[in-house]
Amino acid sequence: MISRSRRRTSPKWCGRPGRRDQQDPNTQAIYILVEKNPNTLAAGFGIPAGTEANVATRIKMGQTSNVYAVVKADNKFYTASKEVKVTLGGCGG
Hints:
By secondary structure, the chain is mostly beta strands. It has no helices and 4 strands. A 4-stranded antiparallel beta sheet has the order 2-1-3-4, with no helix packed on it.
């Protein structure tokens, strides 16, 4: 009988398909910032050495705003941003 092990792979939405052969950077921290929120820092995660940098969170936003992801890896900082539109009622209603 042939045994097939099931490995968890990264989902398509995380932007990492096909990169398992490349070495991950030494991610040290991940921060989520919301430009127009009263508290700009919405979330911060310290990543222990040797851990895969994979986090998830939910944030509450009062209005449409730019959301920034800041990653500290190998003692360098990397950023990405995206405008997130907030609709009345939060579900398009």
